[in-house]
Amino acid sequence: MNLDSMLLMRHELVLTIVILILILTDIFVPDKNKKSVNYIAIGLFAIHTIIGFIPLKSGMLFGGMFVTNPLVYGFKNILNVGVLLILLLAVSWINKKSLKHGKTGEFYALIFASLLGMFFMISSRNFLMLYISLELSTLPVAALAAYDIYNRKSSEAGIKLILSAALSSGIFLFGISFLYADGGSLYFSELAENIGHSYLSVAGLVMFFAGLAFKISLVPFHFWTADVYEGAPTPVSNYLSVISKASAVFILMVTLFVTLRELIDIWIPMLYGISILTMFIGNFFALRQQNLKRFLAFSSVAQAGFIMMGMLSADNLAVSTVIYFMAIYIFSNIGAFGVVQVVSLASGKENINDYNGLYRTNPMLSLTMMIALFSLAGIPPIAGFFGKFFLYTAAASKGYYMLVFIAVVNVTISLYYYLLVVRAAFLRRSENPIPYFKSDFLTRTGLIIVVIALFFLGLYSPFYDYINSVANILNI
Amino acid sequence: MDILTLFVIVPVLTVAALVFAKGIKQYRVVALVGFIIQTLMSFNLIYQYLQERASGNTDIMVFTKDVMWFAPLNIHYAIGVDGISVLMILLTSIIVLTGVFISWKVDDLPKEFFISLIVLASGVFGFFISVDLFTMFVFYEIAVIPMYLLIGIWGSGPREYAAMKLTLMLMGASALLLVGILGVYFNSNADGGALTFNIFEIANVNIPESAQKLFFPFLFIGFAVIGALFPFHTWSPDGHASAPTAVSMLHAGVLMKLGGYGIFRVAMYVMPAGAHYWANFFIVLAVIGVLYGALAAIKQKDLKYINAYSSVSHLGLVLLALLMMNKIAWKGAMLQSLSHGFITALFFAMIGIIYGRTHTRIVTKMSGLLNVIPVAGAIYVIAGMANLGLPGFSGFVAEMNIFVGAFQHADTFHRVITILAVSSIVVTAVYILRVVGMMLMGPTTPEFKNLPRITWYEKAGTFILVLFITLIGILPFWWGGIISDSITPFIEKLL
Q1: Cβ atoms within 10 Å, residue A448
Q2: Of residues A80, A222, A101, the one with CA closest to residue A164
Q3: In chain A, where the domains are located
Q4: What is the DSSP string of A215-258?
Q5: Phi first, then psi: what are they for B162, rounded to 5°?
Q6: Contact yes or no for B142 and A396 at CB 8 A
Q7: Residue B182 in contact with partner chain A when CB distance is under 8 A
Q8: CB contact, 8 Å: B171 with chain A?
Q9: pLDDT tens, A28-39?
Q10: Beta strand B75-81 with A59-61: parallel, antiparallel or unpaired?
């Protein structure tokens, strides 16, 4: 292995260096200057994000366990941008919380470590690699969920997350062992050729799928979602709802579409049913939520149902539309969670009713919230509409009109609860609304980027064209 | 920049100017200037269109432009107009302009009000110029969603309920529309070509009959909900009643026309076999809507509800005429869309003017207003007469064409339907004259003895509308000529 081939892991290497520098810096920065760690971490990560955009060669490492191609590193770049935005929005929160216990550096180191796990997960072409990277991506998040140590709910969220994650990765590993037993290999490519139709392989598929479904919070594996999102610090919920979900969806596509292609007659009906269940249950539970974080948790469950619908066409169209949708979804959800977090930090309020009259005191925040929610609901000309429309197109291309119809009915249901928030902020008035406050520079930058992206990603078609052109790499 | 895309660009620029404007006076001036420019543009468009036709251009659509948008799915930003679109654009710009006059006094969040109004208008303009189903769908939703804020923030009565009901029903309709559009899209390669969203390319394809039968109702109902097809009309009375004046005008005057226009331009054009298969079923629904709307209007006490049900009835006639599928009826349908747009906008403007003075919309609480506000009263009578189809006004021309067209079907079913629909005219006369008699005639209610006179901006708004109602009434051949040339290629698909 020479330097040239090592460079295929450039994203991972740079991120590891960032983590190491960060840990060292954190040791040497005195407690009274802890704030500066924030800026060092974000600065380093921004550099890492920019480096990520320099084109890479395609290739494999470790005998084919690790792969890099434009699709993979393009997706890593999307994740990078997402994490960067989450961090920009998180700084003021971390400053407030960590000053009490002085653990600023840890927050960043843990997030970066988890992201490193996601990177390896996306790149992995071997089930063992996949399993290890999945663990690497999950464990730090459990620690992060419990980061707010003076808050009981946060500790509770940490415990819940680690327990359900442990269970799910156990099932996941069990499923992998079945697949190995049937196919005789852990490599995706070899397994694709050797796997056959047997009880063993089907059981393996189901358990493997269940393990990933936990990460994506598909029904019936969604029970942890609302509690963890509510209890965990908002930046962490934000991270869980977008980055964690996106990378799990990505690897699910790779494994189902390529490796387990042989079992397509099993997993198509499975996805079909789960898609319907997830949409309905996510939506119905979201209808009655008062707490905005729980509300967004169920909304993100419902969104996962739409993603499964897009995957049904199981071809290049599915890959491109799902990735396109994920990219947009990342921005939309970061926007919505970001506003919730900013408001909650400034006023301590997290319920929908607390937002009554918000537009009259904080117009820009309310507009951002509305745009993000409209994007989630799929209202043009905001990007979410294009993402959803293409998902429908993917499903309809294989004749699943019934499912498309169910999905659009669900969009109408979801529009109702998204409008409830808009109603509170714009239509209602309040005796004591959340007073005007000015958020710090980084937060505003983050939210402005989100809003610009939400208009840009939809209307600017070359973005989709690019995703579509690299989606062919999967060779389905 | 082509002259059609300007209809989308100018609103965006107006919004940008509004964002930087300060104070209510500037908002009004900016909004007014923006809408005056749009109105001038729409006059210019008609002029250019007539020039183009006079110079021998016989394409179905003129001023077309086609830009690739999402190449992998063959989605284009494709625009073009024919005679019907240019008249609809004229209608829209006139009604928005008069709407600004009527809402001159909006004091709560005026900037946001005008911005929402402009966004709505740009959605409507975009809808009328699109010839690509995707583009059209995008503009349709852009036109619908600002209604939520417009009714919810500036409305009256149960505004939150009405806004939510309207938005969800119309978005639910767009859900049906979406399934229909995708169904058409994935059958657009039936003759071996590429998948396409372009209406005229799809129309050249023989979509399999089974697919037409399956997807026609999706497209038809999807469009007809916004055109207030019975039993999907229930959003309309509540929405109109709660909406502020300018929004009621725009909504009844323009937004509800998207339904008939979409059915004419898309549903029936791309799926003629489906249209024939389903026609009788929807004819029955349409005629129920015509009669039900008219009868319900008799029982209402609230002026806005009367007018809202009247709209259900009159737009039912548009759907009925479209389903009759002959040229005269279709000409009537298009004239009715225009005429009803102007008339109902005038009605809602007058209701707003009267309500602004008496602070009630209940008919039984008012009497003899003609003595106190004579100009306003007279205009109300004009609107009423036009609505019940008095010759000389636009309503007569439109309904005449519709019924003549409908009567050309000689079979019993169509005859019965036509006679039932014609009888709605009588009912219309009842509810119009009842209101005129109770509210305007007779001794003046004591507390309304000293109502302020109608102001200049209210006069400006209403006079423009009266002018157009009369113009259609006395020059029906000019309007009908533009329409019938453009109808021909569409009706030929169905014959």
Answers
A1: 12
A2: A222
A3: 3-474
A4: HHT-TTS-HHHHHHHHHS-HHHHHHIIIIIHHHHHHHHHHIIII
A5: -65, -40
A6: no
A7: yes
A8: yes
A9: 888 777 788 888
A10: unpaired
